[in-house]
Amino acid sequence: xxxxxxxxxxxxxxxxxxxxxxxxxxxxxxxxxxxxxxxxxxxxxxxxxxxxxxxxxxxxxxxxxxxxxxxxxxxxxxxxxxxxxxxxxxxxxxxxxxxxxxxxxxxxxxxxxxxxxxxxxxxxxxxxxxxxxxxxxxxxxxxxxxxxxxxxxxxxxxxxxxxxxxxxxxxxxxxxxxxxxxxxxxxxxxxxxxxxxxxxxxxxxxxxxxxxxxxxxxxxxxxxxxxxxxxxxxxxxxxxxxxxxxxxxxxxx
Length: 253
Hints:
The protein is of the alpha/beta class. Helices cover 44% and strands 18% of the residues. The mean pLDDT is 97.
């Protein structure tokens, strides 16, 4: 199994223990190292670097940080991405999150910074990991205009939009929230497994009440998709694993 989107760095001191646990069950984890509040990309990078090869890093700028419009910080993150462009598998997560944007100015800040990192992705020839909340259609239309290859992680938009995104050769993330978020389940129902990546968004979106999510719980998403599609666990595991390898161009050991 491959978890296509997690945040080991958010476990802080528990991270090494949880990484070792996950190594027993997973082939790889794509960790979306994103600038957000006190989670600075350079600090997260140093924490996770010893585990690269099992962890495959992306680098990005979260839209909930982007709403602050701190271009000095944007510049520092961009510089860090250029420094590590040959080590990352994508730019992300980046995007739009209108749930927490408090006014039009914050939305505009998100938009400008989103576009900035899409341009960077084109420059360094990397795919992008998209975070879109209450803004899925707008984020998708912008991605289309830039012509970048995109992974819409933890998708919870309409099933009609999910189909359109997939028809335009992007990938969609079905996370462990499939067991309690109707929109995630609805998207999984209408999508071919060949366009789906499975993810946890750990430590969030736990399928088990009262527990932190872990990347090894990605098996829950696989199980639920298998039930919906009337396929075996092994078949969904094989296809989604291949999808992740192809999208991120993973070089597994």
